[in-house]
Specification:
Number of helices of chain A: 11
Order of helices and strands of chain B: HHHHHHHHHHHHHHH
Structural class of chain B: mainly alpha
Number of domains of chain A: 2
Shape of chain A: globular
Largest sheet of chain B: none
Distance between the termini of chain B: 32 Å
Strand content of chain A: 25-35%
Structural class of chain A: alpha/beta
Oligomer: heterodimer
Largest interface: A-B, 34 and 30 residues
Radius of gyration of chain A: 21 Å
Number of strands of chain A: 13
CATH superfamily of the largest domain in chain A: P-loop containing nucleotide triphosphate hydrolases
Number of strands of chain B: 0
Strand content of chain B: under 5%
CATH class of the largest domain in chain A: Alpha Beta
């Protein structure tokens, strides 16, 4: 099957700071990939390279094209929301729709108007008159009306309240995603997209440190809550991470038999957040000895 | 070479509505984004047409008041030597044209300085770049504002203003029993409009093209204070040249570019070509090296601006 995004040795440095450090990546069609990483991990830089917003070293193909040299053609099949509130503040809603309809061959204006009809946004409103949440709704309505093969969302809900965030992902899933489209999303509100994702990827210091499908994640990783009196037995099964919560120990295991674990405590699938803290936190802890770097939280 | 002038949306009406569906895809992809990008600029920068319209309104208001003294002035003009009559009669019309051209110049300069800077400042460049519009189309659409849209607007608004003035004057003069033939013959409206068009095309478009291209380049490059970056380095180089070599070639070059434009385009340098006595000399204008060097420089500046926009991120 053709890959939607394919990268080999993708690298990007700003002066002496290496933002993306040799990333190999393959995103198949029809996946919803969550890219999770601490601030400054290189998520946005990697996405910018994928969207043709920044030059890069290494090999990168998006839908078979080189994004840096073919951005305008690529944008017929790719849409993105790079940040909250990047819509020009002077534009009126009808002007925005008219403009996108004018320049985008795959934009369905009626569809966008249908989405907007469910909101409080009127076509005569200027973007500067809308609240932050409404601007996000407007941007999403415009983007969802584009029949794109790849949608990239970089912190699309940053600073929005819970209701808007929930609505955002709900409409994305119900009205947009149809198994033939690919979505790549980065966010700090990991728990909100956990159920949406088909794949998850952790990035730290410009490298992919974890990359796994959700099915595989559920098969491989288990979280065990143990009473202090059984902790020795649990530790014998070699957890890769351990933390304390409410007087109990929570241990994370990779590829350990479920029944074995169930004998010493309560077993469940770990949340992405806990897995992220375990994987990235472990890394930072190990490297911090030689390399004095801020904790990645 | 004269790429900016090609930026005219070929057939604006055709690319609207359903008719566009039947046009060949290649033609659509070339003209549609350009047409919509220019419309976008007009939505964002309403001063492009509001400022000249306001200037025309102000001027018309003034000339409405001056109609009171018109019969008296006309009598004085009729007493003059016929060779001086034109100057006396056409003066307000030339002033109207001059005011509108000055307005368009100011609007064009400030528009260009903000054109590629504002979209980075308000981060909307991230939205514009998410659409299938190339950096070339974007820069050309922005260059077309001072090089196509503003001159055309200046021309139409000036002609409309002058026509209103002429009709009002005719009405007032007829009412006070004066003969209007001198007014019409001395003014020769059609030739005056033709001369205006020629002046706008040669000086305001072709001769000034490198100025606007330079301003666009600076606006794509500067992180802040585009106006200072556009002007101070030139002044600095001029000062260094003066101090080091006691020459002022750069200053002379810039002055020639700013105000000497079109010296080759007409026989009497410094006069408005609206005067029917002025002979238009497009031939010598077209072969003047200054024109072509300027256009090559303009194209180079625009190409650099396109390249810069590709690399630029929000500031």
């Amino acid at each position: 099957m053709a890959a939607c995004i394919e990268a080999h040795g993708l690298r990007k440095a700003f002066g002496t700071t290496i933002a993306v450090d040799g990333v190999d990546l393959r995103v198949e069609e029809g996946r919803i990939l969550g890219v999770i990483g601490p601030n400054g991990a290189g998520k946005t830089t990697a996405l910018n390279a994928i969207l043709g917003l920044t030059p890069y070293q290494g090999e990168l193909r998006v839908l078979g094209r080189d994004p840096w040299t073919e951005r305008d053609q690529l944008m017929r099949d790719v849409s993105f929301i790079a940040d909250v509130a990047v819509l020009p503040r002077w534009i009126r809603v009808w002007q925005l729709l008219e403009y996108v309809a004018g320049v985008h061959p795959r934009f369905d204006r009626a569809k966008a108007e249908g989405f907007l009809a469910k909101t409080n946004i009127r076509s005569t409103n200027k973007v500067r008159e809308l609240s932050k949440g409404m601007v996000a709704q407007l941007h999403l309505a415009a983007v969802m009306a584009i029949d794109a093969k790849l949608l990239v969302l970089d912190e699309p809900t940053l600073g929005l309240d819970i209701l808007y965030r929930k609505q955002f992902y709900d409409s994305l899933l119900n009205d947009y995603f149809d198994r033939s489209r690919t979505i790549v999303v980065t966010t700090h509100q990991v728990e909100e997209i956990q159920d949406v994702l088909t794949d998850v990827m952790f990035i730290n210091r410009g490298r992919i440190v974890f990359n796994c499908s959700m099915e595989e994640l559920e098969l491989r990783y288990l979280e065990l809550m143990v009473h202090p009196d059984q902790i020795a037995a649990a530790r014998a099964l070699k957890p890769f991470h351990e933390r304390q919560a409410l007087g109990r120990s929570i241990l994370l295991f990779d590829r350990v038999n479920r029944e074995q674990l169930a004998a010493v405590g309560d077993v469940r699938t770990p949340s992405i957040v806990d897995l992220f803290v375990a994987v990235v936190g472990n890394m930072t802890g190990n490297q911090a000895q030689g390399n004095h770097q801020g904790a990645a939280r | 070479m004269n790429t900016p002038s090609n930026a005219v949306p070929g057939s604006p009406l055709e690319s609207q509505g359903t008719a566009a569906q039947s046009v060949a895809p290649a033609a659509v992809s070339a003209t549609r984004p350009m047409y919509w990008s220019v419309r976008r600029e007009l939505w964002e920068n309403r001063s492009i047409y509001v400022a000249p319209l306001a200037a025309a309104a102000v001027f018309l208001f003034g000339s409405l008041i001056s109609l009171i003294g018109l019969p008296h002035r006309m009598r004085a003009a009729l007493a003059l030597d016929p060779s001086k009559q034109r100057e006396a009669i056409a003066m307000p019309y030339d002033m109207a044209a001059g005011l509108l051209m000055l307005t368009a110049l100011i609007v064009g300069v400030f528009y260009c300085l903000d054109a590629l800077h504002g979209e980075r400042r308000d981060r909307s460049i991230l939205f514009w770049k998410s659409l299938p519009v190339s950096d070339l189309t974007t820069v050309l659409s922005k260059a077309s504002i001072p090089l196509v849209v503003l001159p055309l607007l200046t021309f139409s608004i000036t002609v409309a203003t002058q026509l209103i003035m002429l009709l009002l004057s005719t009405a007032v003069l007829s009412a006070s029993g004066l003969n209007v033939t001198t007014l019409w013959t001395q003014l020769s409206f059609f030739q005056m409009s033709l001369g205006l068009f020629y002046h706008l095309l040669t000086v305001h478009v072709l001769w000034h093209a490198p100025i606007y291209a330079w301003l666009l380049l600076v606006s794509a490059w500067a992180r802040r204070m585009a106006f200072l970056w556009a002007s101070l380095p030139l002044i600095a180089i001029g000062v260094i040249e003066k101090v080091a070599f006691n020459t002022s070639h750069l200053a002379a070059l810039l002055e020639n570019r700013l105000s000497g434009g079109g010296a080759e385009a007409i026989t009497v340098p410094g006069s408005f070509p609206m005067d029917p006595m002025t002979h238009l000399t497009p031939g010598s204008f077209l072969i003047s090296p200054g024109l072509w060097i300027g256009l090559i420089v303009a194209a180079a500046f625009l190409a650099a601006a396109v390249r810069l926009r590709r690399y630029r991120e929000p500031i």
